[in-house]
Structure formats: structure tokens, C-alpha cells
Amino acid sequence: MKKIRLDIIGLSSSHSQVGHYALVLGESNGNRRLPIIIGGPEAQAIALELENIKTTRPMTHDLIYNIAQHFNLHLQEVIINDLNEGIFYAKLIFEANGEIHEIDSRPSDAVAIGVRFKVPIYTYEDVLAEAGIVIEEESESAYSDEEGGLSLAEIEKSDPMEEEPVSKTAIREKTRDLEKIKQLTKQLEDALAAEDYEKAAKLRDAIKQLKESE
User: In terms of residue numbers, what domain contains 170?
Assistant: First the structure.
């Protein structure tokens, strides 16, 4: 499975969960962002290393790094390898004595450890396709006129494979869904502009759910 390199874009405070933060990872050679909600201690551990701030005594992730160094355990990479029921999973890929070992981890801990080893962070296409947010310089409208509405004829033509005639009720429901998607898409653009990635992730999921129900 092809791996996709990620860069750390930044950390932003959570607007809905006190003490939590959005860790924003970005596709190295693309325009997708992967926001992951993490706890305060893990966010602090990542920020301290990124800003090259040294504490008087080693924190947990520093201790893990020191132990690995002492026993010649070499971290090769961090992989955010799965997303299941809204929960991200990650692996730490270690090399020791010529053998590769995969250690299960929360993404927050994996990234906090990874930045100390200065190793690359990866994910897979299926994870990024499901949870990623596309950052576009100019969003293209998916609607046919200035008001953003589709005519009934266009709605009917949009599903040529449908065997049964489209009822007026179905047309109205599709129109409402399209309007809702339009509103949510605008809110998503505003959230991205404000770098509120937690809100953007929720809006992305709502848009996806509406599209899948069509």
C-alpha cells in the first residue's frame, strides 16, 4: 500500500473540547490536510520539541527516546495506518539488530516520539481520502447559477441510471440536500480560512454523510 508523506502544519486549540488541540498534518506533495484531535499533554510534548525547548527533567516522550537510544532501537518512521469509527491508529516502525518491529500507538504519542527522532510521518491513501480536508485556493462552485440552485430538469438528468421516475417529493429532498451541502461547503471554507480545523473536520463529515445519502 502506497504511503503518503505528511508534514506537521501546526497545532490549534479545540473550540469544543477544553484542554484538547487539533494536530494538523498536511500532505507533503498535495493540498490535503489531516486534522487529529489530541490531548493537552501530547500537544505540549509535540510543541516543546518543535520549538526546541528543553525541560529540566525528561518528559515521558523524552524518556522513551532516551531508552531507545540507550538500547540501540532505531525509529524508522511513524505511520498513521488506520481510521476506525472515528478513531485514528498509528504505528512506530523500529529497527533493532536488523529486524523491523511495529509498535501500536496513538497518533499523538507516535508524532510526539517521531519528532524527537526526526523521522518522517506517513499515512495511507484510504485514511487521507476518508478523513482529509482539501485546501483549495479558489473553490469551484458545483451549482449552475448565481443563486447556487439546480433546476428540476438538471436534478432529473443528474441521475440517468435511475429506473423509476423521480417523484416530486424526491426532487424536493434532493434540492434540500444540495442546498444544505452548499451551506455546509461555505461554512467549511470559512472554517479553513480561520484555521479552525476541528470545526472543518466536523463539517467535512456532515457533507460526506449528505452526499452518501443521495
Answer: 141-213
